[in-house]
Target: Pectinesterase inhibitor domain-containing protein
Amino acid sequence: MSKNKTMTTSSSSSSFVITLVLCLIIASLMIPSKSNPLTKVCIKSKNPRFCLQVFGLNPHRSPYELTQEAINLALRNASETASKIAIFLDDTKDDNLKVIYNYCLDYYHYAIDALRGAEENFLKDGLVYDRVYVAGNFAQKANFYCENEFQRIIGYVYASTLTKDNERMGIFGSIIVAAADILSNSTLVEK
Model:
């Protein structure tokens, strides 16, 4: 009987140690530090938890890599949302919703163009952040403008079918701005 008790105690002790180590690793990633650009970027974004989930818990990316990844993720999100809006536009019979979806589609196409320009400029020049900031700020505004279109038509109340997509776009925009800010203030730029 003492053998089973020893195994249970040993097993419990091992579980506790593993759990403690995992908690310490996660806590170290969540605490801002000068050596962890991911944490710095995520803390400056609109939704740090979402940011950490999207980027994963790999703190070993340079500010340059984070900025580039943020642009790519925002571009993918904007493209997926634009495709979704195009489907809604094709499926709706309501003329007011068609107007709303057309505006939203325009906002997202402008955001896609800005993000593509920032991506192209960033890949080519690397250290020019103006277009990256502009693209990040526009991504944040595109989601806001689109969401407001659902309330714009007087006499009608439309529930937005794009709220989650718009929120995500705003967060991605804030991540781009935060990443570019960290990169522009970084003394060590690694590609």
Notes: The chain has two domains: 1-30, 37-184.
